């Protein structure tokens, strides 16, 4: 398999996406869920059905879905099938332009997923687009914390799972690939604000949905030559987005962790609060709702479970 990566934003038509079928491990009760930092118990038969519904919905829209678990070597299959977080592939890597940046797990529990996936990526992507050594100098870089706003602008959160030091080491790679501005925000370090995409998400080519509290946070804006500060809304609007501030986000994962399938279509959880998408610019959107409730019990949503590798 050879994949030619290309993603310059969050909303162009999705051609190829990497995913991973959920673990076969059950989380039988709330005590176990609490210990592994999940929201609720999980039944693997139900997660498998939810995963199938989600992948079928994307395939019907013409998206090629690549389940990386099915490509793992036989000797890793049994072990890898027991990794409960493996379905949350967004954190593993990010395509920025034609560059595939490998992530680094923010917690040791997830390190095996990164190793196994990156070993596959080494064979799937051209050598000048992906280097398995590129994350050797970073200590925590999970791409649920990254939004590609435009081909030249990226928005990153440094919080529970991504370190400021890792972002600093990433910047030179981005300058080389034509990114001219990177905004870095440091959001509250709680379970419900763990990653950037649990706080805000691109809903249209000119619209960002965000939790209202984010308006109070400054952003450190980096260019190749200097850095400065501005408020979050000023950084977002300078890159062509209006912001739809939302207070009605009651279930963080379901409400805001959706996926742009193309500029006209959003893939959304059936549990998402309808008011979250109640905006003039979204009235004509094709909203595809899928039941991923059992998967969301693991603390991640649709965006968390998808790694776009080609948008055109």
TrEMBL record:
<protein>
    <submittedName>
        <fullName>Arginine deiminase</fullName>
    </submittedName>
</protein>
<dbReference type="GO" id="GO:0019546">
    <property type="term" value="P:L-arginine deiminase pathway"/>
</dbReference>
<dbReference type="Pfam" id="PF02274">
    <property type="entry name" value="ADI"/>
</dbReference>
<dbReference type="GO" id="GO:0016990">
    <property type="term" value="F:arginine deiminase activity"/>
</dbReference>
């Amino acid at each position: 398999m050879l994949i030619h990566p290309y993603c310059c934003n969050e909303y162009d038509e999705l051609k190829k996406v990497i995913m991973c079928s959920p673990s076969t491990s059950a989380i039988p009760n709330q005590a176990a869920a609490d210990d592994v930092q999940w929201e609720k118990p999980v039944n693997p038969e139900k997660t498998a059905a939810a995963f199938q519904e989600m992948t079928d919905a994307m395939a019907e829209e013409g998206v090629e879905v690549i389940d990386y678990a099915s490509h793992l070597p036989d000797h890793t299959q049994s072990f890898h099938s027991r990794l409960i977080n493996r379905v949350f592939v967004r954190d593993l890597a990010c395509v920025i332009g034609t560059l595939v940046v490998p992530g680094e797990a923010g917690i040791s529990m997830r390190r095996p997923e990164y190793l196994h996936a990156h070993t596959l990526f080494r064979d799937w992507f051209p050598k000048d687009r992906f280097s398995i050594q590129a994350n050797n100098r970073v200590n925590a870089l999970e791409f649920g914390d990254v939004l590609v706003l435009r081909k030249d602008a990226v928005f990153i959160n440094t919080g529970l799972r991504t370190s400021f030091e890792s972002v600093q080491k990433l910047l030179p790679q981005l300058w080389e690939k034509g990114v001219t501005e990177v905004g870095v925000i440091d959001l509250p370090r709680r379970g419900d604000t763990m990653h950037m995409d649990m706080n805000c998400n691109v809903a249209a080519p000119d619209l960002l949905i965000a939790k209202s509290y984010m308006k109070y946070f400054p952003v450190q804006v980096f260019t190749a030559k200097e850095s400065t500060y501005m408020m979050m809304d000023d950084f977002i609007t300078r890159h062509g987005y209006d912001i739809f501030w939302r207070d009605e986000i009651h279930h963080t994962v379901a409400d805001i962790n959706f996926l742009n399938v193309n500029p006209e279509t959003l893939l959304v959880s059936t549990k998402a609060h309808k008011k979250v998408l109640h905006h003039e610019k979204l009235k004509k959107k094709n909203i595809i709702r899928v039941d991923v409730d059992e998967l969301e019990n693991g603390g991640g949503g649709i965006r968390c479970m998808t790694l776009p590798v080609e948008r055109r």
